[in-house]
């Protein structure tokens, strides 16, 4: 033990006695030896963020040992302790908040074993991050995060591309603008690349051929333009692809079908046009497919074998200028919870009975189309859906009359009841029979005779008998 450590040790022991704490007394033995330069670099780096009044050596004499600093983790290399993780900004209640006049000190880049560096809610007043120095962290840094730093403006420095060991680069909800640096193409070890919620413009670099390990690519919420990169299909491991809320245009690339492990594809609110790629149906693992708000303007929706995408849970195809009928394949997606087809130009009838059989369906939007005919959903269905069902703004669509004594039943808004064409015997019988064939849960009849489910709770046979007797009466 060097004399400085010895002095420090005595100092710590005396402090210990003065404050009179009694738990884990052997902690004083655990002075974690560090290179002096490493420790000074740590103090300086932190001081740059929290302000000059912060005195690290005074408050945290043993930062990798018994006086840990919130947001700092260390590890041993050759019997000495080095900082491996550094998180700056308000993550926890007791973390050190960044001052408004913070400085990114050069000492930060002297922490040679740093593996993970995060800035959360730290930069509040406008500043750019320096271009220099990043290369010094290149041999170890695996994770770099800038989250929720509205003050971070300007371009993301090209030199970030020298951090070739990076597995995770998260640049989420800051004020960065300019182009996405092409040097990011060098970061071929990345598993996660998130640049969402900034002000990036220009094209997405077309260099994903190197990104064989990438699992998550999220560039959503920027102003990126141009076409989708054709190399997109080469990110063979990809699980989530979110490019939503940009200004991307052109067609959905055929290559998308190669991404066999993709579970989320979110391209909503872009300018993607020129039809849907039939290759979408090849992504069997997809649980979330969100393409809404793109002027796709097509009737090729029918050409897709929707039934082959049996993992789909959320399917949003609203506001896309889709024409044609609602494809029957959609009614075979047993896991579907959310189906958005609203604000298109869909025509034809609604396969209500088939849709009603989907066991998980909890939201269905077909409003704002030109659908026609009768909706035959049951009262039970409407009760389950509540406001998560919308069918209004389809001028030629009507609701088959549901008569209910339930006070909970609120009919769906904006739908007119279907008019009865004739009330003479035969026609009513026809209508009643077709009603029976389709096993009406809500038990209504075209004549407005109430069938109370409370009494006839064991079901269908009773409905049948009752309705048959009604038919006999009418005759
Ligand atoms: C921190 O405090 C120590 C005494 O505890 C003092 O010697 C040192 O000068 C102070 N450093 C700064 C930067 O204020
Ligand atoms: C990226 O790699 C290329 C060669 O592979 C190299 O010329 C370039 O300097 C690298 N860029 C950065 C920012 O490291
Ligand atoms: C896709 O996922 C499976 C199962 O998780 C995995 O075994 C396979 O390696 C993945 N494919 C790629 C190309 O990463
Ligand atoms: C809606 O569909 C009907 C046929 O069902 C057609 O006559 C009408 O022109 C369509 N309306 C619009 C606005 O496309």
TrEMBL record:
Its main location: membrane. One of its GO terms (cellular component) is plasma membrane. InterPro entries: Leu-rich_rpt (IPR001611), LRR_dom_sf (IPR032675), RLP23-like (IPR046956). It comes from the Eukaryota. It is a single-pass type I membrane protein. Gene3D superfamilies: Ribonuclease Inhibitor. Residues 1-19 form the signal peptide. This is Leucine-rich repeat-containing N-terminal plant-type domain-containing protein.
